[in-house]
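User: Can you predict the 3D structure for this chain?
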Amino acid sequence: MKILLPPFIMACTLSIYGNSIFIKSIGFFTQGFLHLKIMLSYTHMFELVSKDHKSFCATFINTFDALTFASHGLFYILVE
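Assistant: Here is the predicted structure, written as structure tokens:
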């Protein structure tokens, strides 16, 4: 985290305060590339789970990560 946090903060700064769409795109790309949430979850999972359950846990993490966007999408489709 000590290595990835400073570039991640710089990427967030570029995506928020960038003057052009090109600078904002570089910030968003770098922010997505250095995203710590999923990386830390996978690191803990691969250290704590036995080999035969790793594929289930990876699917579980990805499913709950995608549920956020799916629930927001359904909300906007059904409410609006």
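The helical segments are 5-17, 21-33, 36-48, 54-79. DSSP finds four helices and no strands in the chain.
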